[in-house]
Amino acid sequence: DIVVSELRLVNRRMTLITHAVRFMVLSALAIGVTVAVLFLSALVLLSFTFVMNTLAELIRTRLRKKYASL
Question: What are phi and psi of 40, to 5 degrees?
């Protein structure tokens, strides 16, 4: 009877530990996804900024040539 109750207690502890580990793994995966999304959005923002600055520089150069004689 004592052995059975001890086995149940051990089983319950193992179940709690298993749930805790699963929660930690899922949290780590969620954090990893969040970091990946943040990195990707930063890359998109950097690319967008680069394209806009390049376009602005091209427009500035054309306007400078066009109005150089004024």
Answer: -65, -45
Q: How far apart are CA 30 and CA 43, in angstroms?
A: 20
Element (H, E) at 28: helix 2-66
Q: Is the pLDDT of residue 4 over 90?
A: no
pLDDT tens, residue by residue, 14-63: 999 999 988 888 888 888 888 999 999 999 999 999 999 999 999 999 99
Total-model pTM = 0.60
CA distance 27 to 67: 59
Tokens of 67: 């109005």
CA distance 32 to 63: 46
Q: What are phi and psi of 68, to 5 degrees?
A: -65, -30
